[in-house]
Amino acid sequence: MHESLQALIARVNSFEFDSVPPESPFFVSDSAREKFEATTGAPRPFYGSTIIYDLDEAAKQWIDELAERLHSELGEGLAQPLPRESFHLTLHDLRAHPQLNAISDTLFWDSRQVPALLEQARLCGPVSMTVNAVFNLMNTSAVIGLVPATDEDCERVLAARTAFDSCVPSGAFTPHITLAYYRPDSPRPIDPSHYRALLEELTGAYAGKSITCEPEKLAYAYFSDMCTYWPVY
Predict the structure, then answer these.
(1) What's the CA gap between 61 and 82, in Å, rounded?
(2) Is residue 114's pLDDT more than 90?
(3) What is the pTM of this model?
(4) How many beta carbons lie within 10 A of that of residue 81, not counting itself?
């Protein structure tokens, strides 16, 4: 049985609205360090596969504007901006590793079963999501947190997600769109107090905004770094 919408909202609310630790300077996770260069903020090679909902241009427009606001406020505390075309909602991560040869075998075998699973997941239909918060995800990235709009949307998106559990079992789902990654060892680290106030402001401005995840935009994608994604199916 899938998590109910009420339970999902209660769970994500427990960490999305108070997401910035008080410690200064702001600590950047090892996950961000693995994905971005400390000296330049440029993406490092990081390979893998994921199931994503691509977004329409109208959604990418306002998401890009939100990302630009973050960069204008946080400056060198953030890694290189993500290209607009890369914005997506992750349904189910599959494989990821800084060395391609470490996952090449599993990518090969996944490619045999994912097309059928993708068709199964698309049959779940469209999913309406609403913005819940703009928050700090595990000191790795700034993200838009979303929740399903209705009980029916929640059931559909979780059914689509579990379709891929035969590849990689899924845990609790925190729907999100990544806006920016943090820069490791930044010469100007993020000030936690300023960041906390900024996230509160942005949450107030964007909460309740809608995004529709269309089944035809559900894709199996590869990535070679956190700025470069392309659909395979």
Answers:
(1) 13
(2) yes
(3) 0.97
(4) 17
